[in-house]
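Q: Can someone sanity-check these two? First one:
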Amino acid sequence: MANPVKASKGMQSARTINRIQDEATRLFVSKGYYGTSVSEIARAAALTKGALYCHFPSKSALLFSLIKKWEREFLDAMIETVIEAPGDAWTKLQHWHRFGSRFAGENRELCLLFAIMSTELSGSDNEFERELRRINGKYVRFLQRLIEVGKAECIIDPTVDTHTLAYVIMAMFDGILLQWHRSRDFLEGPEFARVSRKVLLDGMIPRVKGDRTFHGDWKKGPDLAFSPAEVKKVR
């Protein structure tokens, strides 16, 4: 039988961790990683520095936990959602955009954190930048596979370089997120998401649509799909 006292302490600890992460995210977004002190995070979370260190041994450990949270809750969950969605590449692209828009709407500061940290820590050649590059690499590989499937189905313009398009999609999504953050007081979120989806997706359509015959399977194609190991990894 579970110990109710121990369970209660575990829940309290989880709530404290979430509060620390939420306040750290807010401060890192507004002041930057290097511009934020542990004392500020502890004060915002209504904790002493000692209490904060009981949960995170350093500011860097706290940032790492937030980066991993974004990877787990956004990237891995989005990849799994798109892989599992039935339909062709066009349908999967719509699922990708819908998931990203909804997640950004519900977790705006966490998404901003990843975009801002990618900029602030770029060129630092430290453990943070290496981790961000690893995660970005996973995102790029996912988009490249999706683009290649779309080209095989004559849904995405085959004349556009796959590698470049994957980075352009990521850049546009980050830019849309930052613009929404700056203009959220007078922009309607749902309409902003709808227009961004139209611009992003319609811009990839071939000028003359060809035969939409399916040339590969999203999960099983030897060249276009995720390998079984990669599918397992994101679940």
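And here is the second, same format, sequence then tokens:
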Amino acid sequence: MPGAARGGRRPGRRRWDRDLPLRDSEGAATGRCRVHMGAADEKGRAMTGAGSGETTTVAPGRSSAGGSLGRDVVARAVGVHKEYVMGGEIVRALQGVDLDVYRGEYLAIMGPSGSGKTTLFNMIGGLDKPTRGMVFIDEVDVAQLDAYELAWLRCRKIGYIFQSFNLLPALTALENVMMPMLFANVDPDEARDKAVEILRRVGLGDRIFHRPARMSGGQQQRVAIARAMANDPAIVLADEPTANLDLHTGKAIIDLLKELSRTLNVTVVSATHDHKMLNICDRVVWIRDGKIERIELRENLKITVGSIDGQEE
């Protein structure tokens, strides 16, 4: 189980106050706010407008701009560029990407190898920072955060599901799901009760004391989903979650993700080539050569085996 951090303190105990910029939907600065983050700040943030002297509590995921048609924007990319230097050459992975991700939606990101799909996926998840431009997660510009603050944000606001499951083999299903809650300084008894509840919800109530080696691939992915949901995240990132599963099991995992997205109002962002997953998503984003090629509502797409809108995929 996670132990204490340096000096005997759990990671979640540290608090920090920062003045961060407020921006409109075009990325223009509209003012500044004081953000308080720490162990006592799991359901909201106290924000004080500069010069106003007023303090309000903003629910996680509520965009100051409100998003398209008044929808909550939980993540936003504004003019995002990402460049790497490889072998003395500059590789432009992203070139001016703009994207709003809405609360409660199921978003699929598609693109060929080298298109920038994974880089954009990592930006939305706070795993990387842009070279230029801004990425907001729950209204906070990730470029303004240091390594500790990014870790705090990722632990409490984002859940991760990997195609290779990434469960700790020495821990039971219960302990794997408890892990992120303990890192977030949740009381161990509360974490245990919640982990049992989530595992039952994903259909593993009879497997809570099993280690990964004693579970099938589908069961391991269900544990990974339960772990991703442990801290009530605003966003769940699913990286090819059905890639290592058979057809029947993959469909069950897709249906489970959709159900959790709908019932818990959690945003799911998936990088995928699985047409079954596209069938249940709300929007599809195509990215090519570091730029968004198009964004379509699922209802406007005709998906058949091997093609989308008549184009082979």
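A (reply): Looked at the second one. The chain is about 25% helix and 30% strand. Confidence is low (pLDDT under 50) at residues 1-16, 34-67.
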